[in-house]
Design brief:
The structure holds two protein chains of two kinds. By secondary structure, chain A is an alpha/beta fold. Chain A has two domains: 229 residues, Thiamin diphosphate (ThDP)-binding fold, Pyr/PP domains (Rossmann fold, 3-Layer(aba) Sandwich), CATH 3.40.50; 127 residues, Rossmann fold (3-Layer(aba) Sandwich), CATH 3.40.50. Chain A contains 15 helices and 14 strands. In chain A, the strands form three sheets. Chain A has a seven-stranded mixed beta sheet with strand order 3-2-4-5-7-6-12. The two termini of chain A are 17 Å apart. The longest helix of chain B is centred in the N-terminal third of the chain and has 28 residues. The N and C termini of chain B lie far apart (71 Å). Classes of the chains: A alpha/beta, B alpha/beta. Chain A: Its main location: mitochondrion.
Chain lengths: 372, 378
């Protein structure tokens, strides 16, 4: 903790001393926001194109609109391309009756999407920021998630997919940085997916659209431009509810999703270099229903688990993972399961660098677990 | 020593000299007040609207001019600071809409209550904030009006409830404040603002119902600047007559670029509320020169010509200036002097905002449960 506050004091002093603009381009922070996979896993071969995250989303939506005549995309400002450019060019290509704007009404957007999906259209709804999804919470939890169950499988809104930009972005503050996946994991009947990069995003999004259940697809907004990979131009799917082991290890299991996966990649490298500790890194990918088998098998092997996410620690999804793992692997555990998450405060404006579970906090937790 | 004294005396003499030139014209030559024709307001479920003439005194005119000019320069300075990355995060600028904030404030008292959405810098100023505090809040420093923790969208003063990021969420809050006003019996009311985009949110209609049912002293004001982010009102709303959307609530459509029109309408609405008739709805037709926020250039969904046209024909500050000059209520020099003073005030505020230190780390915890041990690592 002393190391951290000293680092922060240095950060403050530096910015005050020279008063430079606080730029996030090309500084330490942005370079390590995204670390590309060393090799393409589980994805079919075929012609690829260099794409960033929002372009890979556009590509997935393009494939969908081309292959499925019932597919429609709607949300606030999607017609001109969307505030994050995820739907650029689609309206011109497929027509204004397939890609259209909605007024400013999240509850209405999701409710409308549920109805459209129940009637047979592949409905892809965009919520402009995950922070704005709460007016639609009732529709998602009470309508979408329970439709198939309460109608005895007579109706379902499985063709509904909700997409929303998610996570911290460096300057988002309270209402442009939230990670609300934990609120929805408490609701059986929906699926929640978070990709870590362009290749994953396209495959997972296409799987969500194809899936017979309503899905929420959270896209890490800080990676929209920062994450660039060679992405196949054809459609392909990455299976849901399958976590991916990015790096094999023997001493400690690291679990995260979205942007935090890249932070833990660095932590794994630091642990190897400075402590000689071999970490196994798992990207959860699907948050609900999550891949208990992969995580538990890994913990049985290593004996230690660290879970990290940006959302506040109390009631965050790490708590659920921790609880399940201690039930299944109690006797294999060498140290208590560690959760490195955000503080239990609203997402701060000026204190963001202190709030986020950065690599130093995670590294500290790794050290403590190894020396337990 | 003598040189210093003589310099000082010469200085005062020249200053006095300049003032002599101005003050010779202040009292004798200027018209103390004048009456202006203002646009008729369209009404909904009302027998009559606000008066068609407004009286403006010289003092009022100069005060409105100063406030609007301060607001304008403050927003332009914020634009500059944002481009220099001294202000970060989200910044929604209010220039073009100054007549709304100033006109509304002129129609109510400082003891009344006001709540608005995220385009709040103008209201923070009229509700008692200083330019220094506002700019320091934008840069996230401890001298900011919310101690640097709120930023652009979350500024508050006594009787001003912000500054709210979630679109439409502030409207039910405003009705709640109005209920408190009615309950406490102090003859206060609540002005509850929202935009043309928010007018399509469900909770607004829930609020109309509650306010009308319980006859709450609430003035609902829709600031219609023709675009909800990048979507024009025609493409977002089935009915663009926002003043009629309250259905059972009486409504007024007001020219939001004319500060006198806004003032008279607000006075009319305040009278309606204070007499116990329940809520009233006002639609202010206004325009913003900047884009939705600093990340929006503002020209991909509207033409530069349109912005230019509004600037040249309906700019609120120019309109007031022309009115005062053509009726000999002020001189060009006097207004220029105000401009210079305003510019200086903004420069000082910007300087303060750039050099003030950031809030201390302890502030991260203040405002949440102080007895909870905050953990980031379990």
């Amino acid at each position: 903790r002393m190391t951290m506050s000293r680092a922060l004091m240095h950060f403050n002093a530096a910015s005050r001393a020279t008063n430079p603009p606080l730029t996030f381009t090309g500084t330490e922070i942005e370079e390590q926001v995204f670390i590309a996979d060393t090799h393409c896993m589980n994805v079919s071969a075929g012609p690829t194109q260099k794409m960033n995250l929002f372009q890979s989303v556009t590509s997935a939506l393009d494939n969908t609109l081309a292959g499925d005549p019932t597919a429609v995309i709607f949300g606030e400002d999607v017609a001109f391309g969307g505030v994050f450019r995820c739907t650029v060019g689609l309206r011109d290509k497929y027509g204004k009756d397939r890609v259209f704007n909605t007024p400013l009404c999240e509850q209405g957007i999701v409710g409308f999407g549920i109805g459209a999906a129940a009637a047979g259209a592949t409905a892809i709804a965009e919520i402009q920021f995950a922070d704005y999804i709460y007016p639609a919470f009732d529709q998602i939890v009470n309508e979408a998630a329970k439709y198939r169950y309460r109608s005895g499988n007579m109706f379902d809104c499985g063709k509904l997919t909700i997409r929303a930009p998610w996570g911290c972005v460096g300057h988002g503050s309270i209402y442009h940085s939230q990670c609300p996946e934990a609120f929805f994991t408490h609701c059986p009947g929906i699926k929640i997916v978070v990709p870590r990069g362009p290749v994953q995003a396209k495959g997972l999004l296409l799987s969500c659209i194809a899936d017979q259940n309503p899905c929420i697809f959270f896209e890490p907004k800080i990676l929209y431009r920062a994450a660039v990979e060679q992405v196949p131009t054809e459609a392909y799917q990455i299976p849901l509810s399958q976590a991916e082991v990015l790096q094999e290890g023997s001493d400690l299991t690291l679990v995260a999703w979205g942007t935090q996966v890249h932070v833990l990649k660095e932590v794994a490298a630091m642990a190897q270099e400075k402590l000689g500790v071999s970490c196994e890194l798992i990207d959860l990918r699907t948050i609900l229903p999550w891949d208990t088998e992969t995580v538990c098998k890994s913990v049985v092997k290593t004996g230690r688990l660290l879970i990290s996410h940006e959302a506040p620690v109390t009631g965050g999804f790490a708590a659920e993972i921790s609880s399940t793992v201690q039930e299944e692997c109690f006797l294999n555990l060498e140290a208590p399961i560690s959760r490195v998450c955000g503080y239990d405060t609203p997402f701060p404006h000026i204190f963001e660098p202190f709030y986020i579970p950065d690599k130093w906090k995670c590294f500290e937790a790794v050290k403590r677990m190894i020396n337990y | 020593m003598l040189a210093i004294i003589s310099n000082v005396l010469r200085g005062t003499a020249s200053r006095n000299g300049a003032r002599v030139v101005v003050s010779a014209r202040t009292y004798a030559d200027f018209t103390p007040q004048a009456s202006f024709d203002i646009k008729k307001c369209d009404v909904h479920k009302l027998e009559e609207g606000p008066p068609l003439q407004a009286v403006l005194t010289r003092e009022e005119g100069l005060q409105y001019y100063r406030t609007m000019q301060t607001m304008r320069r403050m927003e332009l300075k914020s634009d500059q600071l944002y481009k220099q990355k001294i202000i970060r995060g989200f910044c929604h600028l209010y220039d073009g809409q100054e007549a709304c904030a100033v006109g509304i404030e002129a129609g109510i008292n400082l003891t009344d209550h006001l709540i608005t959405a995220y385009r709040a810098h103008g209201y923070t100023l009229t509700r008692g904030g200083t330019v220094r505090e506002i700019m320091a809040e934008l840069t996230g420093r401890r001298g900011g009006i919310a101690k640097g923790k709120g930023g652009s969208m979350h500024m508050y003063t006594k009787h001003f409830y912000g500054g709210n990021g979630i679109v439409g969420a502030q409207v039910p809050l405003g009705a709640g404040v109005a209920l408190a006003c009615k309950y406490l019996g102090k003859n206060e009311l609540c002005v509850c603002l929202y935009g043309d985009g928010a007018a399509n949110q469900g909770q607004i209609f829930e609020t109309y119902n509650m306010a009308s049912l319980w006859k709450l002293p609430c003035i609902f004001i829709c600031e219609n600047n023709k675009y909800g982010m990048g979507t024009s009102v025609e493409r977002a709303a089935a009915s663009t007559d926002y003043f009629k959307r309250g259905d059972f609530i009486p409504g007024l459509r007001v020219d939001g670029m004319d500060v006198l029109c806004v003032r008279e309408a607000t006075k009319f609405a305040a009278e309606h509320c204070r007499s116990g008739k329940g809520p009233i709805l006002m639609e202010l037709q206004t325009y913003r020169y900047h884009g939705h926020s600093m990340s929006d250039p503002g020209i991909s969904y509207r033409t530069r010509e349109e912005i230019q046209e509004v600037r040249s024909k309906s700019d609120p500050i120019s309109m007031l200036k022309d009115r005062m000059l053509s009726n000999n209520m002020a001189s060009v020099e006097e207004l220029k002097e105000i401009d210079v003073e305003v510019r200086k005030e903004i420069e000082d505020a910007a300087q303060f905002a750039t050099t003030d230190p950031e809030p201390p780390l302890d502030d991260l915890l203040r405002g949440t449960n102080p007895w909870t041990k905050l953990k980031s690592v379990s």
